[in-house]
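Aim 2, interim progress. The first record below pairs a target sequence with its structure tokens.
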Amino acid sequence: MIFSDKPKEECGIFGIYGPGLDVARLTYYGLYALQHRGQESAGIAVSDGRVIKLHKDMGLVPEVFTDEILKSLTGKMALGHTRYSTTGSSLALNAQPLMCYYSKGMIALGHNGNLINTGEIRSRLAAEGSVFQSTIDSEVIVNLIARYSQNSVEDGIKKMMAEIKGAYSLVVMTENKLIGIRDPWGVRPLCIGRLGEAYIIASESCALDTVGAELIRDVEPGEIVIVSESGLTSCKVDAPDRKAVCIFEFIYFSRPDSVIDGYNVNEVRREMGRQLAREYPVDVDIVIAIPDSGTTAARGYALERGIPFEEGLMKNRYIGRTFIQPDQAMRDLAVKLKLNPIRSILKDKRVLMVDDSIVRGTTCGKMVNMLRDAGATEVHMCVSSPPILWPCYYGIDISDRNELIAAKLPVEEIRKCIGADGLHYLSLEGLLGIFGSPRNLFCTACFDGDYPIDIPKTEKVGKFILE
């Protein structure tokens, strides 16, 4: 939405190998659970062992699929995808899964992440005669797999992985195999679940919970997981010594009820709030959150300090993707339509408000003013992530450093800009200390500029160009 000040993440993927099950409907429910990862388009491909059928369109999962459509998608395995665009425009032709014919049959692919050498590979393939139907980097991936799969699709995947650079979790489906792939750095999440005799590969464990499946484990960085009538097997390509799991999966993107690489997201966010309280023990009467992404951290802050947590802002959860965008004169009204202060809770109170991140800073000032207008005597703001200083090239829509308020202003100036009595960001050391792990397990490039996967200086990455 036009008044949103949150980073956007690219996609959610759900694949199931389950002969005898209603795989399309289970995939539909799995995508519903992953809707937070993308709200622009959705699609499901189904294989009956001989042919792959596909339905996809623009819109939310329940907008794209009807009961009649799901009944028509019969088979023994399915691949679903819900998308937010970072590379490639928000167009129907860019919706996933992608499906194509190649010399060995049919292949469908769903991708979460972003490649950083797309332009180079696409130019080479086009010069060699390849034709592209979309503007997304995912089509480069499926093109390479098809090109190199003369012996087997597994060989094609390994050769593809040797060429591409960037962040990717993939689910690939042929007529008789379901394959999950995680990049050698493990930037984007991917996990394996089991439902009876069926296997599921999904972006987050919350999707497994939704369909009643058990989480087995995460796909390892550089691992290729193959599910077929023979069961589950796996192999690995060479991976670097370090991992680079996206730290924003824990700060904002993943659902609180998910487990990512062994860490419960809800528990991590609560600890972020506790750490904020240790770093910024300001005297206030109540703690509130900007719902819903700041709620768990706000509760953690309140628990650590022994201060009441209150629901000071009411969120309108019925604003969908079709909400009419307000013009400049109506922006303040639009913010109030999404979030409305509860005056009886805020009046004559010193308030600490918690949110997960500040990207452009476009709405923080409005939120502070709303609390003051509702009677708050002081408004302090805590952010459960460090200042975002650098753009992301691995699948998060943080594109231009000039749009990042923390890259332009020091914290004290940001505080003045938003009109808060106090402003504190969680320190990077405090954030990483929650995991009890060394820094080389996570990608923190948006905070410190340390990109684990080198960015080609002349490479066009989505809509960004590095100078």
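The second target in this work package is listed in the same format:
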Amino acid sequence: MNIITRFAPSPTGLFHVGSYRTALYAYIFARHNKGKFILRIEDTDKERSKKEFEENIIESLKWLGFDYDEFYRQSDRTEVYKKYIKQLIDSDRAYISKETPKEAGERSEVIRFRNPNKKVTFEDIIRGRIEFDTTELGDFVIAKSIDEPVFHLVNVVDDHEMGMTHIIRGEDHISNTPRQILIYEAIGATPPKFAHIPLVLAPGRSKLSKRHGALAITEYRERGYIPAALVNYMALLGWHPTDDRELLTLPEIIERFSLERVQKSGAIFDEEKLRWFNRQYIAKLSDEEFSSYASSYVPEWIAVSSPDFKRLLPVLREKITVLADIRTLLSPEGELGFVQEIHPHTAEQLLWKKNPVKESARTHLSKMEELIAAVPTDAFTADAVKVAIWNYVEANGKGDVLWPLRVALTGQDKSPDPFTSAYILGREESLKRIGEALKKLV
């Protein structure tokens, strides 16, 4: 069988993680089976469907790395649906129903499906055998008019005409399945196989949705998540491989995926766990990849191609969880804000709290200036600075020596250690700042 799956979102809001997980499972199942993955925009709801939401869906899928083999938009297929509506009416499987409007603006006639009132049974790949008595559904609406089909009809017609073999969607669609099976039978089509995946839940176990806590995929991009980290984390929300590995590339997920290993119960979306995944992926990036991702988050005063940024790079890697943390770290009040400009400080701030003696601070800082100046420019690293001053530090007390050096270099209480700070600033800037601090201790 040539496997064909689809992702069929409605462009009525920004593309969020709950919808994304559905797209992911449909995509990786198709790719695992060397099949076809189709993107279909279900925009028959003309009032709520917006072009910007459609663009957001397409942009998000591209960012996540999902390629699709075919693209359709339901609003372009009205004539196809009209043909099927006429076919159902002509075969007496549907009829024009005269309605009594209960409110102003309601239709006085719609097209209803003639329900055969029977039991419908299907095998769900994840949930097993499911049976419905369709009698309670009544004669349900399949179109507002010959030119205005609604969800159940267009969904079935498209899945049939596009050759869908597997419908992978959220479990909240289970109740739609009996109606759709009845329509399949009425148009003389064989229903595809169904796999209703568990919902993605908020921490309070409510459904994660556009209205309840789900951020748009583009929001995660803006916050500085690596797309591969989001793919990896979301794949494990409801599915797990045969071993305990958590860090998996998309090709590895595709190779290992099976619908049989998808769980039945809902999966809790844990932002902290996603942050952990992102941290692992940031650590795996090459310097070039990291610089490319970081370029959107660094302030204008520093270029990612500059030597200054290259010295910052390992410190940023160590301290950030999402790329947007770079903005915070390099802001004027951030831990690395001293790189652009030293924070103003007084002579009193240069004094170690356990030995607040100006002469002592001046002596130690003068010695730091001498030892750091002896480190050659072409060998000026954090380790080289530490080696140059460490014997003196140990002999005279870490706090007494390193505190005034830290403040002289950064003007901050919280900053990287003085060796790293000196390396980030470079030899000349470090010596300049130490010299300025010594003037305050006269």
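The radius of gyration is 31 Å. This observation will shape the mutagenesis plan for the next reporting period.
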